[in-house]
Amino acid sequence: MNNEALAINNQGQAVGHSGVYGDTTVHAVLWENGAVKDLGALPGDFGAFASGINHTGQVVGSSYDTNGNLHAFLWAGGIMTELSTLFPPNSDLYPTMANEINSRGQISGMATVTSGKHAGEVHAFLATPADENDVASEIVARGQSSVRPQSALPPEVRQLLLRRLGPSVAKLLQ
Question: pTM for the full model?
Answer without folding.
Answer: 0.77
